[in-house]
Design a protein that fits this description.
The complex is a heterodimer of chains A (297) and B (464). Chain A has 297 residues and is α/β, with parallel strands linked by helices. Chain A has two domains: 155 residues; 80 residues, no CATH class. Helices cover 30% and strands 26% of the residues of chain A. Chain A contains eleven helices and 13 strands. In chain A, a hairpin with a 2-residue loop joins β12 and β13. Chain A starts with a strand and ends with a helix. Chain B is an alpha/beta fold and 464 residues long. In chain B, the strands form five sheets. Chain B has an eight-stranded mixed beta sheet with strand order 7-11-12-6-13-14-15-16, sandwiched between helices. In chain B, strands 3-4-5 form a three-stranded parallel beta sheet, with no helix packed on it. Chain B folds into two domains: 154 residues, Rossmann fold (3-Layer(aba) Sandwich), CATH 3.40.50.720; 278 residues, Dihydrodipicolinate Reductase, domain 2, CATH 3.30.360. Classes of the chains: A alpha/beta (297), B alpha/beta (464). Chains A and B meet through α1, β2 and α4 of A and β9, β13, β14, β16 and α10 of B.
Chain lengths: 297, 464
């Protein structure tokens, strides 16, 4: 696959979704060379992201490089309930990549919708017309979801898999109780959990000694700390394992009863790799769900 | 008129041609031409070209007339004869009747009495064609008193859509599909005709029609007939009609539990709050008119026995989409671990009638990398991508076919009557209960009972 992305785009203010559909079709038709055929659409999913204003830059960064690995229709929803006006503003972009050996390209579609005023209250009715039929829908929720609100409830209702990053949440582990309330409705992924995978693999190699651990000291984010201890509690069937958390931007070390665990090999994955891996999963992750529940026991 | 303009744009209209607009509304040739010009500029799929319009408008006339007495019909006849003479039309006439049902009999009789002595006469009749089987039979009888069946073109614009015709191409031009197009390989079929709009100010019509007469009786049953019909011996009108009639005759009349109806309440469409049906202007506050119908139908013949056809249609649904989904049976024994195939869904051949016109085939493919993980991917044929010509509007094709005398894409009398027979059976069962309307929110996929209809069979509606 080539690393050359060619992007064309369209922008509109106060649009209807039919305008967005039309723009996608025109951009796609515009990718054809003279006398040739337009680029292929090879989507394998619809990838939605709910992105409050503070998370916009981070969301766009995480998306870079994703289109090539997961050809998809990406719908970024930027809620702006306090805009003082009512309407939808849209930007549609095609990211195309050449296929080696073939005079064709594959293209992914990125749709950014700014939901002004009351439009932010009924987001499912906005995205439903844009979902690609029959393909799985992944919802990436930036920041802590507003538990109990209609917008979260609606979007989960049209989603196969909810992807969060509990590193972005405050007051852990309490929000995990709310998240657990969704486990029977939608498969859930947590990027914070994914970032602990190298460490969990390493801790598993310490069996059987690890089964006797009394206190776990985690130097990392609060989410990583609570998920690691929740995982140990649930896997070992013990709710008496204590957590000591030392705050850090990334998972830097784990001590078991004062003894440092060895550092896992390799480098931690970059954000887009972590998100990309989560987009390959479909079913519920019972180990993660058990870890979440055990973290709040 | 936009369809006529597009035909003119492509030089598909005869060189000798005239158009006469007739209505009760007062107007002149000039005012009508101006109104039509605006309609063309707003709605035609082609750019506006003055030379094309001038050629069309040169022989456009308007007549304000009422057919409740002979005078109006005589006025029209005089104008038609005059145009015939001026343009040397040899007596060939197409009458397009887009009139409310009550006006139908007197207009048909007036036109029938004043048939051209030379050339051909063809009559295009818009839906609704009757209100039930009895009224449809009455209409047919009345039409046949003045016109031969070959002169009557009952229009269902869905049949003029390229993607609907492509269903015939897909089935009968490809050797790969027809051998598996039967109960042995197909688990079930789902047909969805979903609109996100409401009744758009047509309360007077819709209150009497409801979803079952507006969509189910015509568009939906025609889509089903095209999907299930046997290969015709040729593509002549009667051959195609006869095969469709066989399907319609074989349609199993469903029991009450196999039909679900709904009416939308308030909700959200595109993030915007929209009123419930009973709050629409002109709708009775206690209206029991259905805006949604879902049904499980069976085609009782050798090919389709025990294969359910799930159909649904409605207004104010979550998105505008018309699709025919052929869901094949699962592979009998996939030799993969359960976790490897968790992202795998059954093969589905999806015909997109609108929007995104084309065909998709969902297949399982290995995800690149270590191990064996299988996932559903789509092979898409998109009309907009494969062919570099614009898609003609349905009415262009159908009006041109009428002028050419080709009735293949129209409905024959017996088709219409078979369709009404099924609808009457469904509506008769509805007289016995009174559902709690509204029972679905605007912007959703209909009432919960629609989901239950499939869940009872261990299936679910396709994800949209």
């Amino acid at each position: 696959m080539s690393d050359t992305g060619v992007t064309s785009s369209w922008t509109g203010e106060g649009v209807r979704l039919a305008d967005v559909d039309r723009a996608i079709a025109q951009l796609r038709a515009g990718t054809a060379s003279e006398g040739g055929q337009p680029s292929l659409r090879t989507s394998v999913m619809t990838h939605m992201a709910w992105v409050p204003e503070d998370w916009q830059q981070a969301a766009r960064s995480a998306l870079s490089g994703m289109a090539e690995r997961h050809p998809s229709r990406t719908i970024l929803l930027f809620p702006d309930p306090n805009a003082g006006s009512d309407g939808i503003d849209a930007t549609v972009a095609l990211e195309c990549f050449a296929v080696p050996g073939v005079d064709r390209e594959i293209c992914s579609e990125v749709i950014e919708l700014r939901l002004r005023g009351p439009r932010a209250k009924a987001p499912a009715s906005v995205v439903e017309p844009l979902l690609i039929s029959d393909l799985p829908v992944f919802l990436r929720w930036r920041g802590e979801p507003p538990w109990g609100t209609p917008e979260l409830d609606q979007l989960v209702g049209v989603t196969d898999r909810l992807i969060v990053d509990s590193t972005e949440w405050d007051d852990l582990p309490h929000p995990y109780r709310h998240l657990a309330g969704f486990f029977d409705r939608v498969a859930a992924s947590d990027i914070a959990w994914a970032r602990t995978s190298r460490w969990r693999a390493l801790l598993s190699t310490l069996w059987p000694d690890v089964a006797q651990v009394g206190t776990v000291r985690v130097t990392g984010t609060a989410a990583q700390a609570w998920l690691i201890v929740g995982w140990l509690r649930s896997r070992l069937g013990r709710d008496d394992i204590e957590l000591e958390h030392v705050d850090a931007q990334r998972l830097e070390g784990i001590d078991l009863d004062g003894r440092p665990a060895p550092f896992p090999p390799g480098d931690p994955p970059i954000p887009s790799d972590v998100l990309s891996d989560e987009l390959d999963r479909f079913s519920r992750d019972p180990v993660y769900e058990a870890a979440v529940l055990a973290s709040v026991e | 008129m936009p369809a006529l303009y597009s035909l003119g744009f492509r030089q598909l209209l005869p060189s000798r041609f005239a158009v006469i607009g007739v209505a009760r509304t007062e107007g002149t040739d000039d005012s009508w031409r101006e109104d039509m010009k605006q309609a063309v500029q707003q709605h035609a799929r082609d750019e506006f070209r003055q030379d094309v319009w001038d050629a069309l408008a040169a022989n456009m006339h308007y007549l304000s007339a009422d057919f409740s007495d002979e005078h109006g019909a005589d006025q029209l006849e005089q104008l038609v004869v005059s145009c015939d003479k001026d343009c040397e039309l040899l007596g060939n006439r197409v009458y397009y009747l887009a009139v409310p049902p009550p006006a139908f009999p007197e207009i048909v009789e007036a036109l029938g009495k004043r048939r051209s002595a030379t050339g051909w006469t063809r009559l295009i009749v818009e839906k609704p064609f009757g209100h039930d089987l009895a009224s449809a039979k009455e209409l047919n009888k009345m039409l046949w008193e003045h016109f031969d069946e070959s002169e009557i073109f009952r229009i269902d614009h869905y049949l003029g859509k390229e993607t609907v015709q492509n269903m015939l191409a897909l089935r009968f031009a490809n050797g790969v599909f027809e051998p598996i197009w039967n109960r042995q390989f197909i688990d079930h079929v789902q047909i969805t005709v979903a609109e996100s709009i409401g009744i758009e100010g047509r309360a007077g019509y819709y209150e009497n029609a409801g979803a079952i007469r507006d969509i189910f009786q015509n568009h939906l049953l025609q889509l089903l007939a095209l999907t299930a019909m046997e290969p015709p011996i040729d593509f002549k009108a009667d051959s195609v009609h006869s095969e469709k009639v066989k399907v319609l005759k074989a349609l199993h009349t469903p029991g009450p539990k196999s039909v679900v109806r709904g009416q939308y309440g308030r909700g959200y469409v595109e993030g915007e709050s929209v009123p419930g049906y009973r709050e629409e202007q002109g709708v009775a506050p206690d209206s029991m008119t259905e805006t949604f119908v879902a049904a499980k139908l069976y085609v009782d013949n050798w090919r389709w026995a025990d294969t359910p056809f799930y159909v649904r249609m409605g207004k104010r649904l979550a998105r505008r989409e018309t699709t025919i989904a052929i869901q094949f049976k699962r592979a009998p024994h996939p030799p993969f671990e359960e976790t490897a195939a968790e992202g795998l869904r059954p093969n589905v051949l999806l015909v997109h009638v609108q929007p995104d016109e084309g065909v998709s085939l969902a297949i399982g493919a290995k995800v690149p990398g270590q191990g064996m993980t299988i996932r559903t991917v789509h092979m898409d044929f998109l009309y907009g991508g494969a062919f570099r010509t614009g898609m003609p509007e349905a009415y262009e094709r159908l009006i041109l076919d009428t002028m050419l005398g080709d009735g293949t894409l129209f409905t024959r009398a017996d088709e219409v009557e078979e369709q009404w027979l099924l609808v009457d059976a469904i509506v008769a069962a509805w007289q016995r209960d009174r559902p709690a309307f509204p029972n679905y929110a605007a912007g959703t996929w209909g009432p919960p009972s629609s989901e239950e209809l499939l869940h009872r069979d261990g299936r679910s509606w396709r994800r949209h």
